[in-house]
Automatic annotation (TrEMBL):
CDD domains: BFIT_BACH
Pfam families given in the database record: 4HBT
EC number: 3.1.2.20
EC top class, as a word: hydrolase
Alphabetical keyword list: Hydrolase
GO terms assigned for molecular function: fatty acyl-CoA hydrolase activity
Protein name: Acyl-CoA thioesterase
Similarity remark: Belongs to the acyl coenzyme A hydrolase family.
Source organism (scientific name): Citricoccus alkalitolerans
Origin: domain of life: Bacteria
PANTHER family per the UniProt record, alphabetical: ACYL COENZYME A THIOESTER HYDROLASE, HOTDOG ACOT-TYPE DOMAIN-CONTAINING PROTEIN
Domain HotDog ACOT-type: from-to ranges: 26-136
Length: 160
């Protein structure tokens, strides 16, 4: 006996995922997508929070390196995380980041993760702080005050 498939998207609020993200209106200036696979699930069969946090931290690191022009950019703080909905195997999720404050040695970002299938927000993180370090592992001024939308600050250390 086959079960009727349930429509998880029915009666859910739309959060504007139908078109391309516009940084001016979306509040996000950097985004990436992931496909939820079996190895990303918890015992409940839904997306494991630890997998999601690993992806967010990695994306935040890439974004911080692009913004601060320093590959020695490390996670200093992640504020409260409220998982408000989840994802299932086969769902596609979208992670968005935006720089909200350039400090002297730090960069503060805001993160939002959305389920592209159910159109629900999975979580938001108001503050992710990265700090730019020097070769001695101590905070070093990055000298930037605003967001770049280009690749003009990419560090050159890893170029052969
Ligand atoms: C990053 C690290 C060098 C910072 O050391 P620190 O003694 O806090 O340095 P400072 O006090 O000079 O602060 C550096 C910057 O972080 C900010 N900062 C420090 N503590 C903070 C906090 N709790 N919340 C938000 N920002 C904070 C400071 O305001 C400062 O930013 P600014 O220069 O833009 O004003 C040190 O904490 C460290 O090595 N942490 C481990 C980092 C790491 O390995 N992360 C990977 C996960 S394990």
């Amino acid at each position: 006996m086959s079960e009727e498939p349930t429509d998880r998207t029915a009666a859910l609020p739309t959060i504007g995922l139908d078109g391309p993200i516009d940084p001016a209106t979306d509040g996000v200036s950097f985004h990436t997508r992931k496909w939820v696979k079996p190895e990303d699930l918890n015992a409940n069969g839904t997306l494991f929070g630890g997998s999601l946090l690993r992806w967010i931290d990695e994306q935040a690191a890439i974004y911080a390196i692009i913004q601060l022009g320093n590959h020695r950019s490390v996670t200093k703080l992640i504020s409260e995380i409220n998982f408000v909905s989840s994802a299932e195997q086969g769902d596609m999720i979208e992670m968005g980041l935006k720089a909200t404050h350039f400090g002297r040695t730090s960069l503060t970002m805001r993160a939002e993760v959305r389920n592209m299938i159910t159109r629900q927000v999975i979580l938001t993180i108001e503050k992710i702080v990265f700090v730019s370090l020097g070769p001695d592992g101590k905070p070093v001024p990055h000298g930037y005050t605003d967001i770049t939308y280009h690749r003009d600050r990419l560090p050159v250390q890893n170029r052969s």
